[in-house]
Amino acid sequence: MEFEAIIGLEVHAELSTKTKIYCGCTTEFGGEQNTHCCPVCMGLPGALPVLNKEVVTYAMKAGLALNCEINKETYMARKNYFYPDCPKNYQITQDETPLCTNGYIEITTDEGVKRIGIQRIHIEEDAGKALHREDGTYVDFNRSGVPLIEIVSKPDMRTPQEAKMYLENLKAILQYTEVSDCKMEEGSLRCDANVSVRPKGSTEFGVKTEIKNMNSFKAVEKAIEYEIKRQIEAIKRGEKIVQETRRWDEAKGETVVMRSKEEAHDYRYFPEPDMVYLVVDDAWIENVKNTLPELPDKKRARYISEYGLPEYDASILTSSKALAVYFEDVVKEGASPKDASNWIMGEVLRTLNDREMSIEDIKVQPKHLAKLIELINNGTITGTIAKKVFKDMFESGDDPEKIVKEKGMVQISDENAIRDIVNKVLDENPQSVADYKAGKTKAMGFIVGQVMKASKGKANPQLVNKLVEEELQKR
Q1: Domain 415-474 falls in which CATH fold?
Q2: Cα–Cα distance, 431 to 426 (Å, whole number)
Q3: Up-side HSE of residue 112: CA atoms within 13 Å toward CB?
Q4: Which of 7, 21, 107 minimizes the C-alpha distance to 66?
Q5: 281 φ/ψ sector (left φ>0, alpha ψ -120 to 50, else beta)
Q6: In the record, what terms sit under GO molecular function (predicted)?
Q7: Is the dihedral of CA 354, 359, 361, 367 positive or negative?
């Protein structure tokens, strides 16, 4: 029997507002424990919440960018649960009336474009953070009351790869709109996955498990992959899948049971009595719509049509806002879009990946990368030398012109000087000359390579090819 997976994702994104959702405390990450809090976010008796308007604006911005409908009248609700990091013993969230509904994200699969539905986006407050130490468990309430949106997808994904693509597109959209910085390492983007399996062809859903504790998109992909396999093997052994919450254990590479899954009624939701209804009018929605930037899909299409870039290049360059900004800045500094794309897709990203760095960390200024490209195009340096110059630029952040002058890397374009090197190489490689004369054209490529090596990569490649051919004909 063949099985298929049903995957839905719940993503929590911290909003980039300066203050918390119901009080004026800062949302800044870090700080000494329990210094970014007040009676409201600590849930002290008599303290009343006041909704931060910016939170609603940010949430609507995310909803509109994700093709959602905005519900014009909603209310906040209390979700009751008892845990040390929840100071009020309830969380103020939205239950039956989410702010945004019926959206979607498109991903590109091997079968073409696939639309993943977004069921709802609601606003809520974050909890504090439990710190487990040898001498006990401590609680830091700095994060308590930080505004979140929870983005709940429909169960439209069928493979771990589709889930990863959905997350990558979602992250890009949230970054482009500046709704969230999406830093998973700081906890500002967190993802839970709901996974079930069913026989292929069946229309009924299987029993789902929820997976938590995934701190990277790669971890999400691996955890879902493991859970699908675990459930299929259990069914084949005649076991029943139990609805439960599991956590991803990165070290073991497996999901581990945390607790039995709570149902909605376990939280005893009811409308928040300390807050009025939230009413959103058309003018507010229109104002938010007008602040939406060019989103990744449109930017990708523009790079293809306006700059003539291949679809793959355009997809990579628009995959993060910072990378797209860097590319556009290099183009603004005078580099052709194709040259800028080639260098960013090649040396820049390769070096960043090798160092496990992101584009935000790079020392090479866009104007300096554009100047390096210009030095190649005007014949000052060769492509080979340019790669060496880039290595220096990456370490120091220096101007490429300065590096080229200091290290004597200027291209040799003197015909007589290059001809001398060519003849020396030909004298040293009589067998290659004989091979060329015998019709083995590959021998010429070897000779050209030896000339470039002898000139330490500084000889003008076009002149080298021309002079090698000329001297070979004479022999």
Answers
A1: Arc Repressor Mutant, subunit A (1.10.10)
A2: 9
A3: 0
A4: 107
A5: beta
A6: asparaginyl-tRNA synthase (glutamine-hydrolyzing) activity; ATP binding; glutaminyl-tRNA synthase (glutamine-hydrolyzing) activity; transferase activity
A7: positive
Q: What is the C-alpha to C-alpha distance for residues 349 and 296, in angstroms, rounded to an integer?
A: 19
pLDDT in tens, 101-131: 999 999 988 888 999 999 999 999 999 998 8
Tokens of 367: 């104007």
Q: Which residues does 143 contact at the CB level (< 8 Å), separation at least 6?
A: 126, 127, 128, 129, 187
Contact present, 267 and 238 (Cβ < 8 Å) = no
Partnered with residue 101 across adjacent β-strands are 69, 120
Q: How far is CA 24 from CA 14, 88, 448, in A?
A: 16, 18, 69
Tally the residues of the chain.
475
| DSSP for residue 403 | H
Nearest to 342 by CA among 321, 322, 372: 372
Nearest CA-CA partner of 22 in 3, 5, 58, 47 = 47
Supply 410's token pair. Answer: 């200027």
- Quickly list DSSP for 21-64: SSSS-B--S--STT-S--TTTTT-TT------HHHHHHHHHHHH
Q: What is the pLDDT of residue 436?
A: 77
Is residue 300 within a helix (H) or strand (E), and if so which, with residue range?
helix 296-307
User: How do 147-153 and 112-125 pair as beta strands?
Assistant: antiparallel
CA distance 262 to 250: 24
Please identify which residue in the block is written with the tokens 């970054």: 175
Q: Which residues of 324-335 are buried (b: 16+ CB within 10 A; e: fewer)?
A: bebbbbbbebeb
Phi-psi region of 230 (alpha: psi -120 to 50; beta: other; left: phi over 0): alpha
Report the half-sphere exposure of 466 (CA within 13 A, side-chain side): 10
Parts of the chain belonging to CATH 1.10.10.410 = 415-474
- The structure's pTM equals 0.84
Whole-angstrom Cα distance, residue 452 to residue 457? 5
pLDDT, tens only, 207-247: 999 999 888 899 999 999 999 999 999 999 999 999 999 99
Query: Cα separations (Å) of 144 from 86, 128, 271, 272?
Result: 8, 4, 20, 18
